[in-house]
Batch of 2 targets.
Target 1
Amino acid sequence: MPTWNELFTQEEFRWKNPHEQVVAFAARLRGRGARRMLDLGCGAGRHVVYLAKQGFEVFGMDISENGLEHTRQWLAGEGLTAQLVKSDMAHVRYADGFFDAVLCFYVIYHQTLAGMRGTIAEIYRVLRPGGFALISLQSKRGYRYRCGEEIEPDTFISNVGADAGMLHHYSDLTEIASLFERFVVHKVELEESLHDGNRHSHWQVLIERE
């Protein structure tokens, strides 16, 4: 089974451009005066760098030292700064209400459902009241659903795709309502695309801590 530290040595996992959902999220936050932002599971840094360019005070957390080192070098090359911390998603090493916003993009579903619930509880804890989060979840409509070893309902060790060997949990609308019941849910959008005839399907969930 690969590790994220190994995968982030490969260029195909070092994505460069910000996702359009994150661009829209940043615009929404600027309009509300948000400043301090956490990219939880920041990977190789594409959104850390983008958000720093937009003038946010950015914090990035990831379990991969290779991903974080790539992010450090990218920031330095751009003349930008951000605070980077090596940590898993189970423990967000900041105080209650510390962040105006949290981004958790294409990452939270790489664990069990219980792990996801724990991460969402941490996001709730570190968000200030009125703070926003944008979170991606895997949809059951994606081509990899049910591919690989099922270790619990809707959680598989995938046997296809570039990150085969990693955990993937797949959610539906009923589960999403349960996961985010403590938040105000502003948007649940199904994002889909075809690559080599295969359907990739994610939920993009915009939430607010009351």
Target 2
Amino acid sequence: MKKVLPIIMLLMTGAAFAPAKADLVHKLTTSTMLSVDAAATSGTRIGSTYSVSGNNIKVASENDHFAKLTAGTATAAATLDVGAYDMNTSGSAFSFTESWIQGDAVNAIGAGVDVTSGVVADMPAYGEVTTYSGGVAGTLAGTITSAGVMTITAGGAGTDATGQFVSELTIN
């Protein structure tokens, strides 16, 4: 038995010296992203509106009227035909409120906006306009060398530059 025991012990320790198996993954990633904003314009035409309110007011004669809108055309907004007013009962209190907004004409398609080199040179002449001037690349640049060295250079207005280095280590 004394002779078999060392052989058994030797077999048991041999398993301890077996190479360990481990999956090891190491990733290195470098990237740059450069962007230049585009020019954009959003215009909303507003229509013609007229409102009137009051008391103790009347039209001046049977041929007169309170102001009214006259029909527009395919390219022109409605216009205002002003009326003629008078007090209903002279010497009595009265109130009168009138409001008029001239609507926008219809621009031809493609008219009203010019963009040159990302800059909005002129805008549509509408009642509500939002304009974003485009970015100007200028000196915007991004490079990565074979050694992984990253260089980012800022550009002009409306530009973005992002550099990123990722080191990922996975052990299974």
